[in-house]
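Trying the structure run again after the queue cleared.
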Amino acid sequence: MTSLETSRLHRETRPLFLILSGPSGVGKDAVLQRMRLDNCPHHFVVTATTRPRRDGEEDGVDYLFVTEQAFLEMKDNGGLLEHAKVYGNWYGVPKRPIEQALDDGRDVVIKTDVQGVRNLRRVVSDTIAVFLAPPSMEELEYRLRSRQTESEERLKVRLATAHEEMEALLEFDYLVVNENNALDDAVASIDAIMAAERCRIPQRQVSL
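Done. Tokens:
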């Protein structure tokens, strides 16, 4: 293969669509924040939600915090790629920023729950699904309790849901364990997954 042919192959590399999922409290937000701080060139999708903002969260960075009326208008007008009601609050993925990123040749990284993964895989072709898991369920419970953001009743619901989500592992392409004090290792694993996928034959061809 000539250098010209190699260069052409490089230019034709298609963008990836990576979905990061896992149980509540496993550290999905922390992983994505570290990836942003590492200046990864990906487009990080910001999910719209009607849930109240937690202390330290920034609108437009952690989530797009919207009213229920505004959310339902986006949904009814076809502005969401997928949506679901989780723990009594609406969550949805704005469609237009993703379309723009893919048109620009940028990889797309999105965080969602297991239900969201299933929904996205119905409407987006050739996605990469990565399951972020805790080192143990006991550690996951400790992390959830340490947040001190919910009642005991809601914690029990989240833990029960987490056990159900762990059973969905075989629906995913990759597993990354978010060990204690090893956030950089989790990020490095995701980077390695994306590097391997760029070498895949045939390449993934994402379409909405």
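The longest strand covers residues 80-86. Worth checking whether this holds up in the mutant runs.
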